[in-house]
Specification:
With 438 residues, the chain is α/β, with parallel strands linked by helices. It has helices at residues 32-43, 54-62, 71-87, 122-133, 153-165, 183-188, 205-211, 221-232, 253-264, 294-308, 365-374, 381-384, 397-403, 420-437; strands spanning 2-3, 7-12, 16-21, 26-30, 66-67, 93-98, 139-145, 169-175, 194-200, 239-246, 273-279, 331-334, 339-341, 355-356.
Length: 438
């Protein structure tokens, strides 16, 4: 027997001493008179004397604080096996399709702002349909992306129709600024089987319009909000996700957007519409200091909970969907020229092209392999030994890949690092509240 490496014993300001295990996600409240006993057990569970506290021993064993000698390594192998099985399964074909790189906005922080905008041609659409037809899988997941995808809405309708004519089962998402969502486009969302519709609002009207404006500088907030109303008043069956791009200049306004949506759609919030923060990446931006690294992200979450009673993200994450386009098999981003990438952020960057949809040879397999396996957290010794491993998916793999080629390293770690005890205290109180209600 041994003390699990996934244990954390800490003193909460409001709740006293707490013991938490990141693998089992169990809490144990430690009374003051038990603290010395717990610390003695942690030194060597096999030599500890449990005669005076047999129930404590049973709790520590059943809740995963004391484990068999190989249990932590076994857990690592199980997590690794399940992750690899999921990442490399032949299953669905996952395509993010940038039908155009053009955009009607000129957002101050856009990573595509300096890249040439152009729409997808009929010839490229034909190549795309042939490309999809070569895959045996019946299930195709499409994410409509840009630029602004609604600038090429007819192309979206045509591609969707032709993919279905191949006998494929289509599910879809759409990433849009929301400005062009008129009645006609909204009426087609169900036909496209869009189940995830992302629209961005960056705070109150004044803040949003200073960050997300049209090419001519005109404001966009009022039109977007009208169009969100239009979607919510329709028979759209999917979920509207309002993204707030958060940095140090507008972090307080996450709550403004949250409150606006809760008040505007009281019967639909959490069912048909939700709000979540997107942390803008600033590594290539001249105003990099405004953007949040993981520690600041955790501080932002704690502030929202303490100040407003709202948790923008989970106070303690579970292992959800494994990987992303960069790391998954049969997952690609298709640009408007038919060029292929392995990350959304790479659209328009020639050096990141991994192939082309008109051929299955001459792909840049070295670049594909680097993203899928060369920077994998599953093979990182530091990650393997990390307390957070059971609840971490390795963070942003594009950051991990970029760190291979630069002296300036950006963290891809979970936002819990540097904020663990503060967030665990909030998580503990949340669990107690839920238990009391049940």
């Amino acid at each position: 027997m041994k003390w699990s490496r996934y244990n954390n014993l800490f003193e909460s300001q409001r709740n006293g001493w707490l013991l938490f295990n990141s693998a089992s996600r169990n809490f144990l409240k430690v009374e003051d008179d038990e603290l010395a006993v717990i610390r003695k057990i942690a030194e060597d569970p096999e030599k500890a004397d449990y005669s005076a506290s047999p129930m404590l021993y049973m709790q520590l064993r059943s809740m995963g604080f004391i484990v068999e000698d190989t249990a932590d390594d076994d857990l690592y192998n199980i997590i690794r096996m399940r992750a690899l099985t999921s990442l490399y399964a032949p299953g669905n074909l996952l395509l993010t399709i940038a039908v155009t790189r053009a955009c009607n906005f000129d957002c101050s922080y856009c990573f595509e702002g300096n890249r040439t905008g152009k729409p997808m041609s009929q010839e490229v659409e034909d190549e795309l349909i042939r490309f999809i037809g070569r895959f045996y899988t019946k299930d195709v997941s499409l994410t409509w992306f840009g630029g602004e995808p609604l600038l090429a809405f007819d192309r979206i309708l045509s591609i969707d129709r032709r993919v279905r004519e191949l006998g494929k089962q289509v599910s879809a998402s759409m990433i849009t600024n929301g400005f062009l969502l008129d009645d006609y486009k909204v009426s087609k969302l169900n036909d496209l089987n869009v189940t995830y519709l992302q629209i961005t609002l960056d705070g109150k009207k004044e803040t949003h319009d200073s960050r997300r404006y049209q090419k001519n500088g005109a404001p966009t907030y009022d039109r977007i909000l009208e169009n969100v109303d239009r979607v919510m008043a329709s028979d759209f069956k999917g979920m509207v996700h309002i993204r707030v791009n958060v940095d140090s200049r507008n972090d307080e306004e996450y709550y403004t957007v949250y409150r606006t949506m809760r008040d505007r759609y009281p019967n639909d919030y959490g069912k048909r519409i939700s709000v979540y923060p997107g942390f803008v990446k600033g590594d290539d931006h001249p105003d990099h200091s405004c953007f949040f690294e993981p520690v600041q992200q955790g501080e932002f979450i704690a502030k929202m909970v303490n100040k407003y009673g709202v948790s923008p993200l989970s106070l303690y994450p579970t292992r959800g969907n494994i990987g992303c386009t960069l790391t998954r098999r049969n997952a690609y981003v298709i640009g408007p020229d038919g060029e292929m990438y392995k990350c959304w952020d790479d659209v328009g960057l020639e050096e990141k092209v991994v192939g082309h949809i008109d051929r299955f040879n001459d792909w840049n397999m070295a670049l594909i392999a680097e993203g899928m396996t060369g920077c994998s957290y599953l093979d990182d010794p530091e990650c393997r030994a990390c307390y957070y491993f059971p609840i971490c998916n390795g963070g942003c793999h594009r950051i991990r890949q970029k760190n291979l080629h630069t002296d300036i390293k950006h963290s891809s770690c979970t936002y819990f690092k540097g904020n663990l005890e503060n967030l665990l205290e909030l998580y503990y109180e949340q669990k107690r509240l839920l238990a009391a209600k049940s």
